[in-house]
Design a protein that fits this description.
globular; about 15% strand; alpha/beta; single chain; binds ligand PBG; 10 strands
Amino acid sequence: MRRTGTLREMVRETNLSASDLALPLFVELGTDSRTPIEAMPGVERLSISHAVEEAGVAHALGVPAVLLFGIPTEKDAQGSGAYDDEGVVQLAVRAIKEAHPELLVMTDVCLCGYTSHGHCGVVRPDGAVDNDITLELLAKTAISHARAGSDAVAPSDMMDGRVGALRSQLDAEGHSETPILAYSAKFSSAFYGPFREAAGSAPAFGDRRSYQMDPANADEALREVRLDVEEGADIVMVKPALAYLDVIRRVKDETRMPVAAYNVSGEYAMIKAAAAAGYIDERAAVLEALTGIRRAGADIVITYHAKDAAEWLK
Ligand code: PBG
């Protein structure tokens, strides 16, 4: 087909715009800090005042949402910093919402950044994660985030029944309007490596294979997504994004739910490293990758490239 510039735009099937993006932020306690993350050039752990500033910059560029991860000063076996009303995420949510009430602030709900052993839940003496005790603590965390003003809670742990537990306990505590963005199809992935440095959440022993999915399985991803939808998920997520574009497409086609895709830390690091070495054109590669994730069926793309992409898309 012959296409002039205008016609090319008119028949374009996929649009990528800043309004599709959400920027993850790592928030730490401390007064005035920006701590670089070695494997994620351009991404830093931010003290609350800097997180407020960064959220404002993203918002001004047209990025409508941020996703907060907290880095507590102290960790314990129960991950109690996660559900402390004065915890780092809770303080950050209040500060960001106060400064930028129009910005959507979503919060990651998991214990792995808060537990001394780095697992996503409470570990039993036999070394396995106790699903049911963990559910109670995750629900407490989500309620605490909602109370602080979180606009959407995003459980990322993969315990069985967590979406239902969060929904019923949020409702019981008067937060029936708080949506759940469920990390429904979360694969056990090597691409989380840089994030674990950022959040200090690498498991001290063992791995997450017992509760994250085998990269080889797509039908299983669909089953996990359906369970989360039945339990009350408002938006379902596929993570990582680029090695799982077929899963994003199937989730979209087979559920017709709003779908988010998480373009994770290792995906970001690959492009940054190759661009820094002069092997690829960063801008073109980022926009192509994000367009591909949208084309696969994602409504929302969570990405560390959000600010750069928004700037380039202007
Ligand atoms: C916590 C969590 C992880 C990520 C998001 N939430 C890490 C993990 O499961 O190890 C990864 C995000 C990224 O790599 O950018 N459960």
